[in-house]
């Protein structure tokens, strides 16, 4: 396989699991990270030691200039882009809506929404058959919180992921005839570092409420994402896949 995938926020958590799985599947992987260079380089080492090819590229998705530079690096290194996984995101501050600040919401939306849009823009410019591209796949990582609402915890985060679902549906309809598929994946309770900012014991408390009876490791999200990127999912676009153990 000579296909290239860019995974944003791939230094750890779900992004890292997706990057590793893509490397095992034969993709050449661009591991984007914002601040955790050491973690991202660790993911690259894992992929390379398994016989794959990967590079780590720094870039804050909240910065348009960083995103443009990130995609230009992909152009220079590989000359093509076949898949984008819009994974970079933050939960933001925990608490009730009556305690949020405008600044915290703006910071959240800059990464979770604006960043995803700008990355999708750059991907479409390269993938679209109307622009000389070969087509491709965009997988947006959303959240089960979109329908659960996350009351008393992170309603702004849930709202930001609702925007991602809407973007997924609209963009899929825009570029479907240009060889590009766009899908969203909604993880549920996943054991990742993102919960470090949550109240202690949150995963242990909520795990038993999942119909399947447990919290999942990030690898259980990576599998569905790799399927959606594959030719086996060639007729799937403009939809949202829930990966949440029945929540």
UniProtKB/TrEMBL annotation:
Gene3D superfamilies noted in UniProt: NAD(P)-binding Rossmann-like Domain
Family matches, as InterPro entries: NAD(P)-bd_dom_sf (IPR036291), Sc_DH/Rdtase_CS (IPR020904), SDR_fam (IPR002347)
Chaperone keyword on record: no
Pfam families: adh_short_C2
UniProt keyword list: Oxidoreductase
Record keyword Lyase present: no
Annotated family: Belongs to the short-chain dehydrogenases/reductases (SDR) family.
This protein's name: SDR family oxidoreductase
Naturally occurring in which organism (per UniProt): Dongia sedimenti
């Amino acid at each position: 396989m000579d296909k290239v995938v860019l995974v944003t926020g791939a230094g750890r958590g779900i992004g890292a699991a997706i990057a590793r799985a893509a490397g095992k599947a034969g993709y050449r992987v661009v591991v984007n990270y914002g601040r955790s260079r050491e973690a991202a380089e660790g993911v690259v080492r894992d992929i390379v030691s398994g016989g794959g090819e990967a590079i780590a590229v720094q870039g804050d998705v909240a910065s348009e200039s960083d995103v443009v530079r990130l995609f230009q690096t992909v152009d220079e290194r590989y000359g093509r882009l076949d898949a984008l996984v819009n994974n970079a995101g933050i939960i933001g501050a925990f608490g009730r809506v009556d305690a949020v600040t405008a600044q915290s919401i703006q910071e959240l939306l800059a990464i979770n929404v604006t960043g995803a849009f700008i990355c999708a823009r750059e991907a479409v410019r390269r993938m679209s058959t109307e622009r000389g591209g070969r087509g491709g796949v965009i997988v947006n990582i959303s959240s089960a919180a979109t329908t659960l609402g996350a009351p008393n915890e992170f309603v702004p985060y849930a709202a930001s992921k609702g925007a991602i679902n809407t973007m997924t549906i609209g963009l899929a309809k825009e570029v479907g005839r240009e060889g590009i598929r766009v899908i969203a994946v909604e993880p549920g309770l996943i054991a990742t570092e993102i919960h470090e900012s949550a109240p202690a014991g949150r995963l242990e408390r909520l795990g038993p409420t999942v119909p399947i009876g447990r919290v999942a490791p990030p690898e259980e999200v990576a599998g569905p994402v790799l399927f959606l990127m594959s030719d086996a999912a060639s007729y799937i676009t403009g939809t949202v896949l829930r990966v949440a153990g029945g929540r």
